[in-house]
Structures are given as structure tokens and as C-alpha cells.
Amino acid sequence: MLITCPYCGPRDVSEFAYQGDGNRKRPDPASTDPETWNAYVYDRLNPAGAHNEIWQHAGGCRAHLAVVRDTLTHEVSSVRFAREHGAPTHGRRKSGAKA
Amino acid sequence: MSPRRTPSGGRIDRLRTIRFTFDGTAYAGHQGDTLASALLSNGVSLFGRSFKYHRPRGVLTAGIDEPNALVTVLRGDVREPNIPATMVEIYEGLVAVSQNRFPSLAYDVSAINQLGGKFISAGFYYKTFMGPVIGPLKGTRFWMLCEKIIRRAAGLGRAGNVPDPSRYERMNAFCDVLVVGSGPAGLSAAREAATSGARVILAELDPTFGGSANWSGETIDGEPAIAWASDIVGELRDHDNVRLLKRTTVWGYYDGNTLAAIERVGDHKATPAKGAPRHRHWTIRAKNVVLASGAFERPLVFAGNDRPGVMMASAAMRYANQYGVLPGDKIVVFANNDSAYSAAATLNKAGATIVAIADLRQDVSEDCRTLARECGAELLTGHAVIATEGAKKLAGVKLAAFSIAAGVLPGNARKIEADCLIVSGGWSPTIHLASQAGARPVWDDDLQAFLPPESGNGWYGAGGFNGTFSTADAILEGFAAGRKAAGQPEVEIGTAPDIEPAALDPRPAPVFEIKANGKAFVDYQHDVTADDVRLAHLEGFVSVEHLKRYTTLGMATDQGKGSNVPGLAIMAEAVGKPIPEVGTTRFRPPYAPVSVGSLAAERFGDLKPDRLTPMHDWHLENGATMYSAGLWHRPMIYGEPGETVEQAYVREAQTTRQAAGIVDVSTLGKIAVQGPDAAEFLDRVYTNLFSTLPVGKARYGLMLREDGLVFDDGTTWRLGDNDFLMTTTTANAGKVMQHLEYFLDVVWPELRVHLTSVTDQWAGAAIGGPRAREILAACVTGTKVDNEALPFMGIVHGEIAGAPVLICRLSFSGEMAFEVYSGSGHGTHVWEALIEAGEPFGMVPYGLEALSTMRIEKGHVTGAEIDGRTSARDLHLGWMLSKKKPFIGSAMMDREGLVASGRLELVGLISLDNRPLNGGAHIVAEIDTDNPHGSLGHITAACFSPALGKYIALALVSGGKARHGKRAHVSDPLRNRFGPVEIVSHHFFDPEGKRMHG
Description:
- The structure holds two protein chains of two kinds.
- Chain A is built from two helices and six strands, in the order E-E-E-H-E-E-E-H.
- By secondary structure, chain A is mainly β.
- In chain A, the strands form two sheets. Chain A has a four-stranded antiparallel sheet with strand order 3-4-5-6. Chain A has a two-stranded antiparallel sheet with strand order 1-2.
- Chain A starts with a strand and ends in a 14-residue tail after the last helix.
- Chain B is α+β, with helices and mostly antiparallel strands.
- In chain B, helix 4 packs parallel to helix 10.
- Chain B is elongated and about 115 Å long.
- The model of chain B has no long low-confidence stretch (mean pLDDT about 95).
């Protein structure tokens, strides 16, 4: 599996660290609503198909990347900086929406 | 007669004789022989004993699909079991032994298992040994009794138990086109791709390129196929853009067109070339792949089809043409298709008598009739072999009339004397790699085989792999696949090459099994019979995947290369469905066994990375016993002659508390947190406030995870308004860095903060004890170190022996203590200056054991207590949870379960029987050595406390503080340690902290 890091180019997956489901949005830190926090901390999407994920280029530039990966084929269809775009926008939220 | 060498012919070098031994007997073969061909040339027909029944077995095939002739190759004390003799190239001094026999191959006591066949049919182990004990001969306890005997009797080769001295290596390769297989189709594809300028890798699992050209006996455009193949190989060698890999099995096809291959670099040599590895693992990234992996001829399932002397027709042909070996003199042919007729003609030409050809079909083509006539064989159409005879080798076969509709017809069976029976049950394309890549095979009624789809995502097929069995068509398909894979436009394909002899019809009769009395094997290597497959069906196994697991069909080291389709066919018949509806199993990597050494390669032994502190050499020179902490090496103790570990750490801790001690703390994680929003960032990640920390001061900080449990702790130093130096525990340094980066990059990208890991840039020495300040005063210049200049948690800049240092007054030992940081290049220089300054004060260096002892005495927590299950309150760190701000974990830390009563809390323990306590031991109210139960918690860390003169421990115990002053017991059945303890506060020593505040 290759991930094309926007800084470093196409690199082997062994250089990257998986950092979880990219569909989650951290609740307002001032809120203590247990439901919201529980969903954020414990709920994960597990689709058979395209999935938003956060990967860190841990063995490279260390940037966090918002990656859309097909869980059935490992095909990576989109890679963006998580920093610039916020969480990826495939899945729960509509494609193209700003985080 | 036995198998023998022909007087001439073959691709072996008859002038070069190679000596080797098999089961202690010396034999000779020639350069170019495999162990199988060399043994056959010496008249050996018995190669091994079978898995369950210990039946005598010979050699069935000539290649990687060999299920029977598995041997162990010995090199000194190193043994490599379960290698097909067909894949071992002989070399001078080769030592091989047969397997699964006792005391010898010819006289095997377990052969008696053949008589008990009914008892060890499919599912025997499950039925006999699983479940409750009913009577003396059932159940799991009975299994435990029998296991040793059964494990010895069943199974294949025995693994070695000495370290493997061989070297292995890994390579990465990139190419435009990877061609798997170098038969006519593969060579044609490689040539076409190479000519177009593409970077090509051609992988061939055999020692010679050419595939079937090596044994087909064909001519291509008037030239012998072998010459045609070597011309192309020569041409490919001249291309700079081609890499030729022989003895290389491509065994895995992964996503993104990443393929794994193993190159056997040294297995065929008596002594490996200097510096050469034994095996080389290849990770190949190919833009496109051409799969030209050929096809396997599959056996027919009939009674006695495993007797030595029974051989695949194509294998017999290969032995004759490639190795100059005749598998027998009086040969009977048994087939359901035409291809066996060319084998018969080849063997006849090489000098064997073809006694009879039994063809399951009633109608046989004129081409075949001519071939049968030419080799003088009696042609028996509509006939089947119903039994074989002979003890350890074939003596004769029994034939009976057969119809495809009705099976074996009643009537007189006929016996024919023969020493070899060659069999062909049709061909199965080698679609393993395509299947791994996700391709769904399609059943083809004409060829009675699963074929791959036309092409896949990233691969093209050619030749036998596609079910294209004529050499002419294979060459054309290779040409087309090579062009496509190289990204070349399609062109009109020229005329097909002229192949002699002309291709025969590859379509077999749809017959897989001849039902008759006797064991008929489907999977030779796992001794799975046709009856086992039917039994599995009777017992309710309907899915092929379940069938496979229940009968172990196709699960041996050959992975069912020959048995897959016959097994499915028999299952389909039992179920009463056509084969495509029963489906096939998906092939998974590896295609063939792979050495673990090649996967580990250099990530082993001396070449694993080590992390050493700047003062590492000093520790070694000064008598430290080192201890591995992750990748780090840290001093455990600086023992004096004759001291035990306990005596050493007690002396070190005691001296520190009485005078002073120094310890290397360079391994602590260190992160520079810098930027205008650094203080705000720290407020969010720590449970306590850091924005209020003045410049020049440090503060102890605690981090939680999002779920509210404790993550890590450490001190953070404010060096400037926007400049912090964070320290983390040694073990969590990487994790904390990643955690901070994640939040900065993903959650709070608006914060202007930069993180830099500076663990390796700073050397750290912690110096503590009542004389520590005097020692510092003696060697530090450029700053005062008195209480006013350097109060508790204060930071100063100064110099030691000319090197700039950063000193912070903080304490892990509980003593008046200072951490001295210098650039790592100055680490040893500063350390030595501190040691020299400490000498007049009686300071000692101390290791991890003393460090841990003093922290236990103080009740400080480390990774043993921060175990991913404890909350801040469990560790009595509730006072660090700020109420003024939200922080990571603040929303989840007050969940019901985390504030419930009865949680495990940090306490201290004192051993009341004056014996050591062990980490991991449980705490119970009452001892019950027979049935230990009722755990209240467990010990996390234990030591002898020189300050208290007692064995003490930290523990996580339910109820915690409420149990202070109460008695309990340790219960440690594993180490047989039971005894009374008193539960006390975790602050054993100087609870008010007078010593460190000074």
C-alpha cells in the first residue's frame, strides 16, 4: 500500500502511523455532554469500502494526512493535509463541506 | 526393474558427477539433477512415509507441486524439513534424510496405521479428543495423555533446534513489468516488454529459464524449444533494463501491485559464495504484472493411487527429457485426456515399454490412436485403473471397463504387470497469484478447470495460466500480454510459430474419481481420501471452506496444488451440485513455503537498533550492569565485586540518602514546545495550568487520554515566554510526541506552536542527596545554586567545566536534587566533572534499581501504575485536575465507572514476614493456596527499602486509603509466594517532603 504524502511523494505504508477514523469531530471542549463525548471517543465507522482516515507520516515529515482509503482494496483515492482541511469529508458529512 | 538413467539425453551434465547421501546411503548424480531425479536414476522409488497412515510414498511430480517426496536437508546441525525432493538441486556432499518413519524408511512400525484407517478418518481428533470426559478413552484429558505419541507419529519433518547461522537479506525492486514464469509465454512477454524499453523483471522458480521448453521435446520454427528459449534469455541478458531472477518464487501478490518473492541464492551450493545470503527476499513494486505461471497436471483419484511408481504423466516426461531418467521400464498410462499420449511417446522413445494405455474415454481421437500405435501400446478405451499392486513399489495394475455415465462396469477385471503407472487427470491453471490479487476464477466446462478472468487490475495473463495449452498460442498470448503490460499499443499479431509435434486436444473427460474398494487419495500430503470428503459432507459440512478445514484438504505444505479441483469435484458430486456452484477456496499467500529467515532478514540480532546515552561508555568502564529498557540500554547497578544485585542497589540508595548519588536521566523524553500559543497549548494537554508558570520555573504535569485515564507525567520547564521544555517518561516519549502532534495538526491547527523532539540533543544527569547542593556549588560557574538563586522547581543557566548547562531543582528520589542538562556532545564531559566534584562528598553513581527503590519509598508513580486503567484519583493525583479550564480527558474523567467506589487505588505494602514481595502478586484478604481467589488488587513494584529496613511494595488495591493500617496477604501461586502484609500509605518515606524542599 502506498500513500502519496503531499510533501514527500508516494511512500510505503510502513512509514505511516494510523491515527484513527477521520470522521470524528472533537466536541466543544467546554461541553461535558456524555453522549457526545462517548460517541467521539468510542464510536468508529467501519465501512466496507471508502473510509476517511487520519494517517501520520511518522517516518517522514510527520504531517497528519486526511486519507480516503478503500478498506476492501487498499486503494487510496485522496490525500490531503489534515491541518489545512480539517477532518476529511467523506462519509458522515457531505463531500466538499469544510470542516 | 526400477527407475534408471537413460544411456543418453537430458539436460544434465553427464561429465560432472556429484556425490550425496540419502538416509545415510551414498549416491551419485549429475550436475543439473534434482534430488528426486538423482535418486530415481539410482533406482530409488521409496521417498517417504505418509502423514497419517505411514503408507510408503514415492515421487509423484517433478516440481513445486510435489506432495509426497518431502525430505529434510541437513547442514551441520541445522535441519530444514519438508522440502520437496523435486526442488532440491544436488550439490557435492548434500545430506538429505526421509521423514515420518521409525526406525527406518523401509521398516516403519507406524505403518500399522494403515490397518486402522477407519479410526483416523476425517475429524478423528475432534471426535475423540474434544469435549467432556466420558469413560477413560475420551475427552480433552485423554488428548493430553496421547498428545506426545500422536505428535510423534503424525506430521512431517522435525524442525531443528539450533540457531540458523545463515544470512538472509531483503531487497526492494521497482519495475514496469514483472513477468512471473519463464516458459514460452513468459519469455515471449518479457522479450516484447523489454524491447519496448520497459524495465522488466523476469522471475523463474526453477534453476533454468525456459519452463516447459526444458522438457516438452518440441521444436519451435524448426529449432529445439530449449535453443529457442536460451536465445531469448541471451537477448534479455543484453538489455540493461531487464533483471533476470532464477530460483525465485513469487509467492505473494498484495495491493498496489506489490509482490513478494524469495530467491534461493545459496541452497544449491555446498558452501555459499563469500558474502552471499542463503535466501533473498524481494519486495517488487510493478506497474504491471504478466502472470505466465503455467498449469499443474492433476492426479486422478483411484484406489492405490499413492503407491510408489505412480507418477504424473507430465512429470514422467520431464524426467525423461530434462533429466535423462526413466521412471520405469514397463509403463501403463491412465488418463482422461490427450496430453498423456505425448508423455507415452516420449517415454517410449527414451527406451521404456508402454504396456497399455487405459483411457477413461470411449472415443479417442485419431491422433491419439496413432501415438498409441507408434509406441506399441495396447489401447484400452473406456477403461479405468481400479487398483494398484505391490508392496513398497508398483508391481502391477488392475483394469476394468468403465463408462463415464455409470462408472466401473461389472465384469472381469484384468491385471497387468507394470513398474510404473503414469496418470493424467487434466490440467489446473496456476491461478494462485491472480486469486491472491482478488480475481474470481471462472469454471470452464471444456477444460474442467477454474480459469482466471481475462485480466485483472494491474495484471495480464498468458499461456497455461489462461488455460492455453498449445505452445504456439502461449507464445502469441505472451507477446500480447507483454505489450499491454509495457503500455504499448496493440498491434496485429503475426503468424503463429510453427510447433512440432502438433498440439493435442487439451479437453479432458469430466471424470475425477474412479470409485472402487481401497483408499483413494485426494490430498496425498495430508492423507485425505475421497471417503473423507464424503464423510465431511455426510456430517453436514456444505461450504468448501469448512470442508477444507474439517478434512485438512489442501492445507499441507503443497497447499493443494494438485488436490484442489479433484476435492471440489468429489464434494460437488456428494452435494449434487455442479462444481461452479460449490465454488472454490480463495488462495492466500504464500504460494509456496517461505523461510522465516528471509522475512526477518537483517532485523535480527546485532543489527537491531540500540539507543545509547552519551555517557554509555562511562557506565561500562565503571562497572555498570546494563539493562534493556525498550531500545535503550541503562545502568541497572554499578556492582562492586561480590555484591548481589540487592546489596548493590541498597548500598547505592543508602549512600544517596546519606551523602549523594548521581544517575543518568538522558533517556527521558524531551520535547521543545515553542511559539506564541505554547502556554495555551500546554493548558489544554496537561490537567494543570502552565500559563501561570513563571519563566525560570518548572512544574510537574499530568496528562490524561481523551477517555479520562492517565496517559503520562513529567515536568515541563518554562525557559522563556514562548519557550517550554517538556519532559516525558522514557517509555512514552514517542507516544506523547505523537499525541501532541495529532492535536496540534488535526484538532487545533490554529494554535501557533512548534514541537521538536530534543531527546537526543540533551544529556541529563540527576544528582541528589543531602550533599548535592555542595557538589554543584563546587563545580558550577556563572550562577549561584543556593536556595535563593535556585529554589525548589527553579531553573538556572550556568557552566560546568566550561560547558553550558541548564540546571533545574527537582526531585524524583525525594532528596534535595537537581537535574543537570547539557548538550549531548558535552554529556560525558559534564558527567565526569560532576563525578569528580562529588568524590570528596562520597557521591556514588546509581542505576535503575536504586532509582526505582527511592521512588517506591516516595510513592511516585511510573508506567507500572500508569497502566492505562488508572485514573488520576486512583493514583491520588486528583489535586492536579484543574477546575478552571477544560483539558484533554476532562470531559470523560468523571464518568460513573471512573468515580465509583471500590476502584483499585494506589497504596503501600510492608512485608510482615520479612521476605521479598513480587510485582504481579495478588492481594487477598485470606490465603487459600489450593484455590487462590478473591483478589483485592495487585503489586505494581517492590523492593527492599534501606530507609525503612523492610521489604515494601506499591500496589493497586480496591478501597485504597480505607484499608490503611489493615492486614492482608499476598497470593502468588505461580511463584508459590504467600504471606502477610500491612497496607499503608504509598508515602513511605519523608511524606512532608522536608528533604527535597531543604
